[in-house]
Amino acid sequence: MADQMQWTNALSTRPSLEAAINDVVEQAVASLTVPAHLGLVFISSAFMSEYPRMLPLLAEKLSVPILIGCSAGGVIGRNQTGETEEIEAEPALSLTLAHLPGVEIQPFHVVAEELPDSDSSPTAWIDLIGVPPSPVPQFILLSSPFAGGTNDLLQGLDFAYPGSVVVGGQASSGFMNGRVGLFCNDTLYREGTVGIALSGNIVLDTIVAQGCRPIGEPLQVTKAERNIILELDEKVPLMVLRSLINNLSEEDRTLAQHSLFVGLAMDEFRLNLHSGDFLIRNILGVDPNAGAIAIGDRIRAGQRLQFHLRDAEASSQDLEILLQEYQNENIGEPSPVGALMFTCLGRGTGLYGKPNFDSQLFSRYIQDIPMGGFFCGGEIGPVSGRTFFHGYTSVFAICRSVREQGTGNREQGTGNREQGTGNREQ
What we know:
6-stranded mixed beta sheet, UCP018953, alpha+beta, transmembrane, 9 helices, globular, 25 strands, cell membrane, FIST_domain_N
């Protein structure tokens, strides 16, 4: 029998760091029948003062060639009964271990000052990361909240590694101005981005769910400057928006006062646009005199957009639709062995009014696979084959091996359902 991919996760809510590490290592190691090649660890900000102790304590109990992780306002993992839990604002530690035969794993840490400039060739990015573009690598990134150049890094990876999947999130503290930790092998970093490139017999399928629903009809930007919409369908944008809101139900009009976004169509040639076809961006403000609308991204004449609303019901329906589509589209593919979940601090109990909502919904469709993850200050995931930094979203990375025979496998996961999400501006 060929050496097979294995994936496990363990979660501890013990308030002592030593006890939590003992718990997760004992559980995770016991459930693997082979040595782990990779570890991912997410630690609650309740342990903030103990971040420097975590890696030495972990090294006493666990031997794994490559380990990355970060701190978080909440962590996600599998409890001892086998259920996935989202532990928010309480002490918790989540450890994922993976046995990945036929996979090259390259860890890295980069800071903004090291990034190639916008005129650089792909070679400059390849030299920085230290990974060849073929076979196509899959990336997992964990960044600090004030990591300058995060968007530049995402664009650079897309440029140098076409066809790659890039997922991850921004380390969070759960506290205003709280310190974060990024972990890479035996080193604690306070800034920059840590990551791994996975090359070979591995696919990361993605589900990027942002919980918005479109309102009104698609509109065309007929005049724009930088991030300011000056005309929509040759009309004053603010007048178009007011007319749209006046035609909404009373409930949606109320929602529009605090949960209104704009969705940018990502496929210029798609005639019938659906919720998953948009990259959602914040509305930053309006000019009541000129009637212009400023958004959290660059915009150009000719682009299409549609206004969106976000609430718990829309988030639930959105994720369920994407999970159904993923399930239907992956019939015949190798079975998933594990998953990672990068979800926004603005989701969870604060959005749904109860814990574990997104992870339980995921588990109803993609069953019996271990999942780890954390609550992010911003999420990283693809939309229409390009990688973006998001907010208010749940990004799932589903790990499986490459199909061994035939050529029908999806190209490194880039064909999966992906949905744009609200941007948290840098």
